[in-house]
Design brief:
It is found in: Cell outer membrane. Belongs to the TonB-dependent receptor family. Its main location: membrane. It holds the Pfam family TonB_dep_Rec_b-barrel. It is a multi-pass membrane protein. By secondary structure, the chain is mainly β. 6% of the residues lie in helices and 53% in strands. The strands form 10 sheets. It has a 28-stranded antiparallel beta sheet that branches. The chain has a 5-stranded mixed beta sheet with strand order 1-6-7-4-5. The longest helix is centred in the N-terminal third of the chain and has 15 residues.
Amino acid sequence: MKTELDRARLAKRNRKSLAATASGLALAMAFPAMAQEADQASVTNTTSEADIIVTGIRGSLQRNLDIKRNASGVVDVISSEDIGKFPDSNVAASLQRLPGVSIQRSGARGEPQGISVRGFGGDFNETLIDGRRLSTASGGRSVDFTTVGADFVGQLAVYKTPEVSLSSSSIGATLDISYPKPFDKMGTRMAFTAAGSVQDEAGKLTPTVGGLFSTTFADDTMGILVNAVYTRRDTQANRVYVSGWQGGLFRECQLTAACTDAQLAVPGDIPGWYQQQYGADQRYTKDERIDGRIAFQWQPSDNVLLTIDDNYSRQKVVTSIDGFGIWFNQGDMRNVELDGNGTAINFLQAGSPTDFTAGTDKNILETNQIGANLKWDATENLQIDADVSYSKSRLNPDGHVSSEGADIGYGGLLGTTLGVRVTGNSNKTFPELTTYGPAGNQALWTDQAILGSHVTVRMAQKNSDEIKQFRLGATWKQDDLTIKLGARYMEDEFSLENRNTFANNYWQAYAGYGAPSGRTSGVPIPASLIQGTINTKGWIPGFSGNLPPVLLNYDARSYSKYLEGLWQGPNTPGYNQGCCENFNGTIDLALDPGSVQNILEKSWSAWVSVNFNTEIAGMPFRFNAGAREEITKVISTGIGRVPTSIVGSAADPTLLTVNFSDSQAVTASSSYSYFLPALDMKLELTDNLHLRFDASRTLTRPRLDYLGPVLNVGAGQRVGALTATGNNPFLKPYLADNFDLGLEWYYQRNSYAAVNLFLKDVSNFIVAGTQRQTINNVIDPTTGQPAIFTVSARVNGPEATVKGVEFAWQHVFGDSGFGFNANATFVETNKPYDRTDLSQSGFAVTGLANSANLVAFYDKNGFEFRTAVNWRDKYLLQFGQAQNNSAFGAEPTFVNSALQIDLSTNIRLNDQFSVFGEALNITNETYSTHGRYSNQLLDVYGYGRRFTAGVRYRF
């Protein structure tokens, strides 16, 4: 029985086996389940020793193709072109080149942050590191790919049909990220990379520096690999936003200039949507990441291989924000003009205050995973595989203040009869103010003489996610029969808490804008706090719409320190009397009891699979059948309380404060178990034409932060926008019955064409059911009636079917060096979004979008050039918006279609040195979202282009 080390030694003598090249060996060790099958297969008969390519674009594509061809199920792979030379600087950016895979971008940075596979987004896809679940402190099941460095990734494998011995089989796909190991290649090797990157809007050159060292010793029975990478990226993005398009019923008089008290006392009957808050801001983000890895391998005998590794990453993201924001209430709107869909495309609101906003968000995400794997060839036919790992991810582990926010401005006597006009579609226009400035005087828009203090928001979000897992498996292999069985135990504990100035109401300590606005609360803003202005000309590329000429630039923390320095006791001028119990001048944070959650999820699983090769009518036939049993127990703990009263604010009529009962601990538990069968069949109609059929049942567990046991009512609320959110510890997982039918044609070396039909019947969809209700019969002081809260709670709901087709074509034009890789995916569902449904529990499948990708390249004589074109059509991202107080339930968020073009090149100067360059988003594409209708813009970001140049060295 050959061990991994035996295969490595054999590779030096025999290059005709698929596992014989050094890169092929790395693949075999990274993906043992596939390697066991690949060992039996030979490279297609068009291959000879002379034309095997080890590195470069074509070499990488051929290795990917070989894995796809020999796998039992539907698997797509991207592999490193050489050590330290992954195709893209971001893992998600590479994944979008695969059929059926598209990306979700971070608007403020333009970075690929998550992926969707066949329309199913991040939480439907399980991400593994060398076969192990990776912890993530976000609370979801997905991984933020901006935290995963790609510089020294070996391979990415996307399992679109389940491998029962690998994971619990997510509905979208299982992604396995493989890192290099010492025994991938015997001896000593090194790789170094250094690059500089600049985003055109930020204009600052930032570095990436990394190195890898690997060596084997003790007669090649031991090996150690160490690598580390430091990356920094600065991005400046401009944004225009509407925090939420709220649905409600307008009164007939609101379509005119005035309403009487009698008219306002009658409920409205004209359905429409209005902007809850409108504004614009500029964001400067500094993203610093450190990735480190150490791996040790020891083979004390031919039959035993021990691997111990540790993966560490630390990402620090600091974002500075300057902008303005204006708040609207439906009942105060007049001269409302509604379009044919009910969207308020023009209106006026008397007395509107204006806020100039500033903020600094600082988040640190630290993740460490350590594991040990033991492979033992017990007999010639039996291999035992034991794996244990521990992973912990922490968001802001030191508990620092993660968000500093400030609002200054004017209102009261200086409030403006203000309006916002919508003039076009959200993919090319943004709404614009029709009037602005104090009392409508646009020339005094940023007059510092009238600026007063308003609110101070400080938050400290602290999360942690801790995963312990153990796996034991056995593989019996004899002739054309392979049997696998095993079991796994996993314990995942997620905790979160938030401390903020809403919990103690200190955010309102100096609210009111001060004397220029006719208020006794609030203080003037000294000119020394204002650092300058930001010009808004040409704010968003390719978009029309006018903004006020400038934004104010000031520091939120300096602002709050200034307010803290004013304290002379409860009679301090400008202090919002009675707002804040026990306030002593320091704008401290307090624990928000409703934010506290601790979710403990324990799961046990067992699996068995049988794989054999035979013939049908003289045609090779591969059959694989397996099953996995999943048992899960959830224990959920939180802190519950109910509102006892609501108090208005004399300083600002738009602010409300909620008082609560005493807090008490709440605990709930639930459990479930599911049987998950899987079947893969492949018939080789000819040597190069393969037919596949796959059927399986898979599940995706609910997000951990959805499993809290309490209803959370925020202490700080707004008039006309009372909200509460609830989670559900009894949520069941999504279940899907999946079917795949594919035809693949490997018509020449490094070239193939494929078509794949897929269908997924999904049940137990988790929906955020929204309803408007009273809570504990507290009175709304603005109406004198029982307060109506918009309550969002998650429940298991309907079923839906998703079906689609994937096309893929990879072609290399002989020995010319030219080639391309193209794919397209078309997907649809029987539950599309219905814009006319005004019920509070509307439902649709999120994430579904047609997409297409093209990578055209040249690779010859040490010169590589690549053009990547990625397109994704409009899709429903989620139910819910930043402000979600609609009378018609959770309003949707759609992402507009986008097309991005990236360029990259690499020149190999000699066997050791190469230089490379990259230009991302060369057409200056933007990221934009909208609400129920296409003219309801929610967000548009202009995140600019990015250029990178660097050198690589290896030996």
